[in-house]
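Q&A FORM
Asked by: J.P.
Topic: structure of Naphthalene 1,2-dioxygenase system, ferredoxin component

PROVIDED:
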Amino acid sequence: DVLGVTVEGKDLALYEVEGEIYATDDLCTHGAARMSDGYLEGREIECPLHQGRFDVCTGRALCAPVTENIKTYAVKIENLRVMIDLS
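REPLIED BY: S.T.
REPLY: Here is the structure written out as tokens.
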């Protein structure tokens, strides 16, 4: 599952992969597309605009046309709340 959220003015995409939550910037590094509108398969998110893919756990760009990694954020669950480190 993928969910777009805004935290302290920053647009993020949250992903559930094998019971863990991961977070990246919501904007693709290649084009103006929201990753939260993309297709998640395993730990890879496919950009809905040009079909480039990223590893949501590491942010690594996996295939053309994306060449720049996407920023990831540390996530932890506390008292059933998702806590994201924006630093």
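FOLLOW-UP: The longest strand covers residues 10-17.
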